[in-house]
Task: structure prediction
Amino acid sequence: MNVDVLLGLQWGDEGKGKIVDVLTSNYNIIARFQGGPNAGHTLEFDGIKHVLHTIPSGIFHQGVINLIGNGVVIDPVIFKKEIESISKLNVKTSELLISKKAHLILPTHKLLDAASEKAKGKEKIGSTLKGIGPTYMDKTGRNGLRVGDISSNNFEEKYNALKNKHLQILNFYDYEYDLTEIEEKWFDSLSVLKKFQHIDSEHYLHNAIKNNKKILAEGAQGTLLDIDFGSYPFVTSSNTISAGACTGLGISPRHIGDTYGIFKAYCTRVGSGPFPSELFDETGEKIGKIGNEFGATTGRPRRCGWIDIPALKYAININGVTQLMMMKADVLSGFDKIKACTHYLLNGKKIDYLPFEDNDKLIPVYKELSGWKENLMEIESLSEAPKELHKYIKWLEKELELPIKIVSVGPDRKQTFFR
Result:
């Protein structure tokens, strides 16, 4: 049985959590393959909003295994808060498994993150200050602590060795800090993480594939934040693309099945970095207000703009997307006209691709399409949607050369329509 992959095609915040939740009933295992608690996956059902940061978005379905893969970095403090939050809803967490090879975010990783951003001044990348980057740096530098280390006899020795290394760097930054309280909270939270089953997740998944279990690999952030292929250096610290599912879970590329690419009917971005189709006018403000565009993790307002076709094509090609899913179509209700960026102008030359450099100098070239006035959040099937929305969908399918299989018109599970 192949492993399907679900990921974002823009700068994150596309609505992946909601779609994972909607699709979970079709799968036996939901496996998160990269990122850390800088990602916030928002789900809404029965009138209640839920935000997950580390735990896979299939956790609200009983009888489905949720796995945190080796490519994920875990903050025990945030993990504990998530467990406490979902436990209040009587969610069964015994079916949550954690890879022994997933790396731990230490208290000093957060301090290093903050010190590094402060030192960059105006050149800061807009980090969420969750310690993600420094944790991945220790991982690639072969210094990190992993979940499997928690049960070792010399865990405290390993912890102190890495902590002391971090403190030396913080002294170099001349950064003031108080470690006592956050370290105490970290060790207290570690006791919650210890209660869960830590496994060799790659072996577990190999056996699951062999036994024809249906597996969905869940990504975090978005393609344009990928460490290699995103708008570097304004990116996250992991591979957010479909290839990241192989390294983040230990599965072979030959076992990848469908790749579901999720995008908004427009574009948003949190933090610094190039954003060719960003709107700085009342229209951008209106999209942000209607779409409630605030980061699920940080609460920061998201930058808003029209949909970007060259960037989407780029993301589709890199990921090998087989099906598209469009989110938040309801946010565009009320506009007489909507726009789509079809090309860029770079130094007066028309191009249809994302170049290596000068991304901040790209001038978007737009195609104007008819908008719609109807409130999509009130429809009960896509057949009730206005003809202008159907035209928009068909135009996107033609431009992107892929079918759009799901259209979302609101935050609730019920506001998700299959085509």
